[in-house]
Amino acid sequence: MSGAFLAGVVAGYGIAVPVGAIGVLIVSLSARESLRVGAAAGLGAATADGIYAVLAVAGGSAVAGVLAPVATPLRWVGAGVLLVFAGITAVGAVRRRETPPADRGRPAGVLTAYLSILGLTLLNPATVVYFVALVLGRGDAGGGLWFVAGAFLASASWQLAVAGGGSLVGRLLTGTRGRLVTALISSAVIAALAVHMLVG
């Protein structure tokens, strides 16, 4: 039990810690909206990791085999979604700067942030391949639930830490210009990561 849980924790941190487009989105949402919105987005990413861990434990190599033929189209869809999100972030930041505060649109909601990041993270089939490799490498089907719990909790703790960091950045850069600059930097990084997905 404890061995499977610890293996899941290591696997969860292994997939969550490298900062990619999802991490940048979580930081951006926390900085621009609120810690609650960023935390919801982080939990969306962790939920996707948990779902893929469940699939890896339940289906093993069969799941990886089904996803392998569609890995490239999913990567293209994911990159396209990221490019659209980057554009929306940049345009929204410029419009918010030019619009009086009373006329600004509604901020992103907690449920919207959770579902959008969950969906975007699920577009990365490499995650299930990663978990399948670890599960098959361990060579035991027992402790699958503990492995999934460890992976989810590790991913969730990291994503919440990332959201907290984004919230801190948001508090430090509360001025109109600071928020504009961070939003534009965020959208540029997201766009660069999307292009890397396309060419990688």
Helices, strands, pairings?
Blueprint: H1 2-16, H2 21-32, H3 35-59, H4 61-67, H5 71-98, H6 110-122, H7 126-138, H8 144-172, H9 176-199
Indicate the proportion of strand residues: under 5%
User: What is the total tally of β strands?
Assistant: 0
Q: In angstroms, what is the radius of gyration?
A: 18 Å
- Quaternary state of this entry equals single chain
For the termini, the CA-CA separation is 38 Å
Mean pLDDT: 78
Q: What would you call the structural class?
A: mainly alpha
Q: Report the biggest beta sheet as strand number plus sense, adding barrel if it closes.
A: none
Q: What gross morphology would you assign? A: globular
The parts where pLDDT drops under 50 for at least 5 residues are 101-105
SS field, number of helical segments = 9
Helix proportion range: over 70%
Whole-number tally of structural domains: 1
- Sketch the topology as an H/E string, one letter per element: HHHHHHHHH
